[in-house]
Amino acid sequence: QLVESGGGSVQAGGSLRLSCAASGHTYSNYCMGWFRQAPGKEREGIAVIYTQRGTTFVTPSLKDRFTISQDNTKKTVYLQMNSLKPDDTATYYCAADEEDDCEWWLLALKEPNHWGQGTQVTVS
Q1: What is the pLDDT of residue 123?
Q2: Residue 113 and residue 50: Cα distance in Å, rounded?
Q3: Does residue 26 have a pLDDT over 90?
Q4: Which residue has the higher pLDDT, 108 or 37?
Q5: Residue 117 pLDDT grade (very low, low, confident, very high; cuts 50, 70, 90)
Q6: In the prediction, which pLDDT does 27 show?
Q7: Hey, what's the torsion of the CAs at 73, 100, 78, 56, to 10 degrees?
Q8: Average of per-residue pLDDT across 13-19
Q9: Residue 28 DSSP one-character state
Q10: Is there a contact between 32 and 95 (Cβ–Cβ < 8 Å)?
Q11: Is 52 helix (H, G, I), strand (E, B) or coil?
Q12: Helix (H, G, I), strand (E, B), or coil: what is residue 31?
């Protein structure tokens, strides 16, 4: 189970930190990632983290503003979003799956099997 939190409304230029807590899985090595989908647009991969080794990947167009991190003790992954723009308005989803070329999630070449319910971010 993946439970996101931290969404909300923010003014342009502001920051938000999303959290995703994972529970109930049995993978020893797994990835977690963040995606977003705006109304009328395709889902976009944002960032991925290999939770055991800490390796991260962020979509190049967002890497200057978005950072993925984790707290392994809490099995929680975070997405720090800075300098937010109205174009960042979307529903943000957390996802997870067994470790296997997870960076391909960002290229839409693979999809994770487990998803959270999503959290809304609105930038005005």
Answers
A1: 97
A2: 15
A3: no
A4: 37
A5: very high
A6: 62
A7: 100
A8: 98
A9: S
A10: yes
A11: coil
A12: strand
Q: Quick: pLDDT tens for 80-107.
A: 999 999 999 999 999 999 888 999 999 9
Q: Is 56 helix (H, G, I), strand (E, B) or coil?
A: strand
The tokens for 13 are: 């230029």
Reference 35, options 99, 97, 98, 100; nearest CA is 97
Beta carbons of 56 and 43 less than 8 angstroms apart: no
* DSSP per-residue codes, 61-122: TTTTTEEEEEEGGGTEEEEEE-S--GGG-EEEEEEEEESSSGGGGGGTSS--SEE---EEEE
Distances 122 to 3, 10, 22, 72, 99 between C-alpha atoms, Å: 19, 6, 24, 28, 31
Task: Give the list of residues 6+ apart from residue 32 with CB closer than 8 angstroms, or none.
Answer: 2, 20, 22, 48, 49, 51, 70, 77, 94, 95, 96
For residue 6, give the 3-state DSSP assignment. Answer: coil
Of the chain, the percentage scoring pLDDT greater than 90 comes to 83
Which residue(s) pair with 19 in the sheet?
A: 5, 78
